């Protein structure tokens, strides 16, 4: 309802948005992402929930050539290690064997076939990786070992909360930590000027001619969202629903405050 009322062509800060705002904060991530397309390896991407980790990776993978790269995205990570490798097998077109040793052999053979015969790089993105079981972290270095550890044939992105980086600093996971080639931490948009630019871009990308709220309203949203894009989007979409119900063509501060309280 609010989209029609405000004349938007898409949801404000919705999950279907590809045109992400970036004032340079994502430049390092884009650069390192390209690195791992040319030189496969292991990457660690961390940030607070709602900061936009998955959105950025979704945008980066959106334009990849499917004849050169196969993106396998997995967010159901709170399972046993065998379930995780079975999910990878299914994504690669393998009927998963019962035993882990056979499963690993077939997975590695399939990855070799993809890279050597079809020239396709598999990119395995493990979202919510802070939920991965400890034995998976201990296993992964061995799984990534190809040809006496002389070849890197798979790019893996471990994506999760800041606690994930702390977990991987523990002694039992030293072998895995030593393989990480890229470490990126995304931060909230806390600065007032940057947050204003972010919201202005969001409204423009959604099809609005202006931001619909005053400077005081922007500050309300900035503080309530703590600079997290997901939370800012929830507040603004809720406020727009409320405003549309009242036939308003803008978002007054009292509507924003009510949206913030409704979401608490």
Structure, briefly:
Helices cover 49% and strands 12% of the residues.
Folded structure, characterized:
This protein has 12 helices and 5 strands. The chain has 264 residues and is an alpha/beta fold. It has 2 domains: 27-186, P-loop containing nucleotide triphosphate hydrolases (Rossmann fold, 3-Layer(aba) Sandwich), CATH 3.40.50.300; 189-262, Orthogonal Bundle (Helicase, Ruva Protein, domain 3), CATH 1.10.8.60. Strands 2-3-4-1-5 form a 5-stranded parallel β-sheet, with helices on both faces. β3, α6 (134-143) and β4 form a beta-alpha-beta unit. α4 runs parallel beside α5 (100-117) and α9 packs across α10.
Secondary structure elements and pairings:
Elements: H1 2-6, H2 27-38, E1 42-47, H3 53-62, E2 69-74, H4 81-91, H5 100-117, E3 121-126, H6 134-143, E4 155-160, H7 162-167, H8 174-177, E5 180-186, H9 192-206, H10 215-225, H11 229-245, H12 253-262
Parallel strand pairs: 1-4, 1-5, 2-3, 3-4
Helix content: 40-55%
Arithmetic mean of pLDDT: 92
Structural class: alpha/beta
Described by strand count, sense and barrel closure, the largest sheet is: 5 strands, parallel
Report the CATH topology name of the largest domain.
Rossmann fold
Order of helices and strands: HHEHEHHEHEHHEHHHH
Question: Quick one: how many beta strands?
Answer: 5
Low-pLDDT sequence parts: none
Strand proportion = 5-15%
The number of helical runs is 12
CATH hierarchy, class of the largest domain:
Alpha Beta
Strand arrangement, major sheet: 2-3-4-1-5
Query: Measured on Cα atoms, how large is the radius of gyration?
Result: 21 Å
CATH architecture title of the largest domain: 3-Layer(aba) Sandwich
